[in-house]
């Protein structure tokens, strides 16, 4: 079978934007926890000329992720993997955030790293929040990067009494995503494939608009006002960067985390957004 497949996990605005840039001539598998989201995205991409199928996936379940892999392989070799699924600090408890954003990402990287085609590439969407977590020890970094997937939630640094705040759980998950991708890039490289992380700032998606009106909205609006770019980003801008990383111009880039937040993190450490 010569067909190539793009797998999009999390069929929201960012996943769709990347898929449109890297999937011409490829079958697109749209996977989401909510099938109605996948179906809505399939309508948009199908109307734009893409060959699309949909499937339910729960990234916190190994059986579910394996079913996704098997479904994708029925359409051809897996050439592109876009992992954009996750939950935010206002959506879930610390335990759920760690299960979905940290364990789920490790699971996706493990399972797709076993089957990704030679010349393939992957993108994991992390977050600017991972860059605002204080420095971890080298032992903690290695633990997040290399602990076997089924053992990662048992790390002492992730114990319920240690991670009690949803934002902390989110930050450590997103830092963990970047570290995990760095380690997985070594394994993926043995298959002739690459994988990188993008850490976006505030990107104007339906979820972001919901967050702006939520309990953390004032802080997000302040980030937009005082960041050097002076605005939020768009899904298409994330798509542009992902296309570079996944395409022929990015073949020397793997195991990297690219921060694209309009300078919010710069302002957090050295500017008007610095904590008191």
What low-confidence regions span 5 or more consecutive residues with pLDDT below 50? none
Query: Strand-and-helix sequence, N→C?
Result: EHEHEHEHEHHEHHHEH
Going by helix content, strand content and strand pairing, the class is alpha/beta
Count the DSSP helices: 10
Q: Helix share of residues?
A: 40-55%
> Any idea what the CATH superfamily is called?
NAD(P)-binding Rossmann-like Domain
Give the name of the CATH architecture.
3-Layer(aba) Sandwich
| CATH fold category name | Rossmann fold
Tally of strands: 7
Mean pLDDT, as a whole number? 96
Indicate the multimeric state: single chain
Estimate nothing, just give the exact number of structural domains. 1
| Name of the top-level CATH class | Alpha Beta
The major beta sheet can be summarized as: 7 strands, parallel
Cα shape = globular
Provide the spatial order of strands within the biggest beta sheet: 3-2-1-4-5-6-7
Share of residues in strands: 5-15%
Q: What is the first-to-last residue Cα distance?
A: 59 Å
Short description:
This protein has 276 residues and is α/β, with parallel strands linked by helices. The chain is built from ten helices and seven strands.
């Amino acid at each position: 079978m010569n067909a190539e497949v793009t797998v999009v996990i999390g069929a929201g605005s960012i996943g769709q934007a990347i898929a449109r840039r890297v999937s011409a001539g490829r079958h697109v598998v749209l996977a989401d926890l909510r099938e109605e989201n996948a179906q809505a995205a399939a309508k948009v991409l199908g109307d734009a000329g893409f060959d699309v199928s949909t499937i339910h996936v729960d990234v916190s379940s190994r059986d579910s992720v394996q079913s996704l892999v098997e479904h994708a392989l029925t359409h051809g070799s897996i050439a592109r993997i876009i992992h954009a699924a996750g939950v935010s600090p206002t959506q879930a408890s610390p335990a759920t955030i760690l299960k979905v954003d940290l364990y789920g990402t490790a699971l996706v990287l493990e399972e797709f790293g076993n089957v990704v085609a030679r010349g393939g590439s992957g993108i994991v969407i992390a977050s600017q929040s991972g860059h605002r977590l204080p420095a971890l020890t080298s032992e903690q970094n290695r633990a997040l990067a290399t602990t076997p997937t089924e053992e990662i939630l048992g790390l002492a640094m992730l114990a319920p009494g240690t991670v009690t705040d949803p934002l902390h759980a989110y930050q450590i998950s997103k830092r963990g995503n970047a570290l995990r991708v760095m380690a997985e890039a070594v394994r993926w490289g043995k298959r002739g494939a690459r994988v990188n992380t993008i850490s976006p700032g505030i990107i104007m998606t339906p979820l972001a608009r919901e967050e702006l009106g939520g309990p953390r909205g004032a802080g997000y609006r302040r980030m937009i006002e005082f960041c050097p770019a002076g605005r939020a980003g768009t899904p298409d801008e994330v798509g542009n960067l992902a296309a570079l990383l996944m395409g022929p111009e990015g073949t020397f880039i793997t195991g990297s985390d690219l921060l694209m937040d309009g300078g919010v993190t710069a302002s957090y450490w050295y500017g008007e957004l610095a904590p008191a």
